[in-house]
Amino acid sequence: MYLFKRKDDLRRFLTSAREKGATTGFVPTMGALHQGHLSLIHRARQECSLVVCSIFVNPTQFNDPADFEKYPITIEKDIQLLTATGADALLLPSVAEMYPEGPGTPGPRYDFGELETVLEGRYRPGHFQGVGRIVHKLLDIVQPQRLFMGQKDLQQCLVVKHLLKLIGSPAEMIICPTLREPDGLAMSSRNMRLGPAERNNAVALYKALCYVRDHLGGPTSLPEVVAAARLQLQSAKFDIDYLDVIAVREDGAVLFPQAPVSGLPMYAVVAASMKGSPVRLIDNLLMNG
Ligand code: AMP
């Protein structure tokens, strides 16, 4: 695997590979890699002749400075995992390399519509502008044919799909399924920050989503099912930012239906942290189809 710290070196490498007919698949990450990340590399490996990964903990998408400070970093192990998984190139830039203008300098303003004010957008103001800013920069460098992202960050996928349209990128977005631990907890770099008791308890998040899935469409109304799932999660000592059922329209818009809808994918979505824990976890589960 080739390791690039400078974007211009990667650009030159990719130009030459493209001239030789390579199809580029791109997997952007913030590192602290786990099997979920590697599943995206595997998928890209199957579909593309050149697999590029990036590891960059992007300061502009952290609305909480403490979350940024504490974000786990395991670069040596990440490089080994990527090499073993068959990535061809890794971009590992510094903050100055990605933000020569300075990360504190205001960037472009992207119009993501309501996606920016609901769910994650509501609880993490500015987060998706930061995501848009870094993904835009990375796409400019890598110019992939395919972009591989995880359903684990569903709203991020919707925002980036929107971004591709806004910036006229021809990249095709491939949304990959969420990989889970054996007990059902969605794999996440942030899980590393959970103590053993918290880690055991964290499965309550997945159980709440399963509860919604298993009861939706039955005799209990959607709002009542969601209310019961919220109670379950609160009994497991979680503070909930949101636990909702959404439907996603073809154009990426998010709806909050009061009853199951047919013809649109519906997801239960959750963001919560355990009482006294600074670690905020998110997850979602497809309810239909
Ligand atoms: P991150 O490093 O958290 O920014 O994630 C990088 C990419 O990996 C994003 O597209 C995530 O949605 C995806 N990802 C994170 N966790 C998982 C998981 N458990 N299963 C599949 N993809 C994931």
On the 0-100 scale, what is the average pLDDT? 97
Q: What's the N-to-C terminus distance? A: 38 Å
- Named CATH architecture of the largest domain: 3-Layer(aba) Sandwich
Question: What general outline do the C-alpha atoms trace?
Answer: globular
- Can you identify the CATH superfamily of the largest domain? HUPs
Going across the biggest sheet, name each strand in turn: 1-4-3-2-5-6
- Using the CA coordinates, give the radius of gyration: 19 Å
| Structural domains: how many | 2
| CATH level 1 class label of the largest domain | Alpha Beta
Total number of strands: 10
Order of helices and strands: EHEHEHHEHHHEHEHHHEEEE
The low-confidence parts are none
Oligomer: single chain
**Can you give the helix content as a percent range?**
25-40%
Bound ions, cofactors and other small molecules, one mention each: adenosine monophosphate
The biggest beta sheet reads: 6 strands, parallel
Supply the number of helical segments: 11
- CATH overall fold name of the largest domain: Rossmann fold
What is the SS-derived class? alpha/beta
Strand content: 15-25%
Pfam family, one: Pantoate_ligase
InterPro entries: Cyt_trans-like, Pantoate_ligase, Pantoate_ligase_C, Rossmann-like_a/b/a_fold
Pathway: Cofactor biosynthesis; (R)-pantothenate biosynthesis; (R)-pantothenate from (R)-pantoate and beta-alanine: step 1/1
Subcellular location: Cytoplasm
